User: What shape does this take?
Amino acid sequence: MKGVVYMHLKSTVIGLAVGIVGGAATVLLTTPQSGKDVRLTMKSTKDAGQQLNSEFKQRFSSIKDAVLSIKDEVQTTVPSVVEDVKVSVQNWQQETAPIQNRLKGNIDAVSKSASELEQAADEITSEVEKLTNRLTFKKA
Assistant: This one.
C-alpha cells in the first residue's frame, strides 16, 4: 500500500514539475515583457512551485502517518480479535457438546426403533401371507 501511495504521489509531483517548467518556458518565450518583468514572473512561479512542493510534502507526511497508525492498529487489534474468535468457538463447542451427544443418542434410538418397526412389519407381513395362504387353501 505504501508503494502505491508513493508511486501516485511521485507521478503527481513529476507532472506538476513538468507543468511548471513548461509553463515558465512558454511564458518566457511568448511574452513581450521586459527582462525584469519576466524575472518577476519566474520568481513568482518558482515561489508557487516551492509552496506546492511544501504542501505535497506535508500531505504525504500526513498520509504516511495515517497509514502507519492504521498499520499499528491492525497489528494490535487483529491478533486479539482472532484470539477472541478462537475462544468463542471453543466455548461454543464445549457448550454444545452435551447437546450433540444427546442428539446423537436420540438419532441412534430412533434408528433402532425404525429397524425394530421394520422387522415387526416384516413379521406381520409374513404372518398375513401365511393366513392368506391357509384361507386360500381351505377355500380350494
